[in-house]
Amino acid sequence: MKKEDLITKWLNNEQLTKHESEAFEQLNAYDSYIKISETAKKFSAPDYDVESNQEKLKEQLSKRKSPAAKTSFPKILFRIAAIFVIGIGLYFSYFKDYDTTINTIASEKSTHTLPDESKIRLNALSSITYDDKNWDSERKVLLKGEAYFNVAKGKKFDVHTSLGVVSVVGTRFNIKQREDIFEVVCYEGVVSVTVEGQTKFLRAGDALELISNEIIEKKITDKEPKWYYNKSYFYKTPFARVLKEFEWQYGVTVKTKNIDPSIFFTGNFVHSDIQTALKSITIPMRLKYMIDNKTVTLYKE
């Protein structure tokens, strides 16, 4: 199949054969196409009254006396229409087939079994979306937040986040994607991670972090993520990240007074009791805390 036909088939969201998929992944611009796809998934088509907005645009342009403004109206309208059509097309191409979404709220974790018996354990304030009806032809999950995956062997299994893509056949791994943080830890087998235009292969005991556009590779000895057992652990971690994790687990807002958020913290906190958790992160730092409804304030005496 010609390169142009292959790209067209992919853009139309048509199922590629194994040979076509391999050929598509060998294209020089493969990473660029994937980035375009991921950006499109975040598009949310707004309600747009074309006739009403066209009339408003005409009124604004008619107030201008410049002939150039009048002659440019068709071009402007054409651009608006083009953006609108492209947006609608992207929306329906990438969202129409995803019929199942699982969410967790603050302080909640849940385990979900996929159609192929793969299991996903969701951390607090996280969600997954996938196509249940066509799962046999495409094992693909969209993730927001953090999740631990135990993937059944079979066809290629893809996890897409706004910051990177993780692909496997059968393995155990954890993905964390919150705001500008992206972290992948492999506990069994091999996973490929595509991020920042690069593809990295992680084996059991390997971990990768993307923080502020910097890729950091490291080793781990754990057999499963600690949060799986209702605890968050940190080793020489900026205190600001510790507080963010605390907010995600307890659904609160944390404020600080006279505290340097860049100082490093080593320790842990539980997910089951906010008072115990607060003592775990304040006593080692010689801090005090106050709780006012859903706001926690940390301060120095």
How would you characterize the overall build of this protein?
It comes from Aquimarina rubra. The chain has helices spanning 3-11, 18-25, 30-41, 50-62, 67-71, 73-95, 239-250, 274-282; strands at residues 100-103, 110-113, 119-122, 127-130, 139-150, 157-160, 165-168, 172-178, 181-188, 190-195, 198-203, 206-211, 214-219, 231-238, 253-257, 264-270, 288-292, 295-299. Residues 39-48, 65-73 and 80-96 have low confidence and may be disordered. It folds into four domains: 3-41, no CATH class; 50-95; 100-219, Jelly Rolls; 230-299, Phage tail protein beta-alpha-beta fold, CATH 3.55.50. Helices cover 30% and strands 35% of the residues. The protein is built from eight helices and 18 strands. A hairpin with a 2-residue loop joins strand 10 (190-195) and strand 11. The radius of gyration is 24 Å and the shape is elongated. The chain is of the alpha+beta class and 301 residues long. Strands 1, 2, 3, 4, 5, 6, 7, 8, 9, 10, 11, 12 and 13 form a 13-stranded mixed beta sheet that branches. The longest helix has 23 residues, at 73-95.
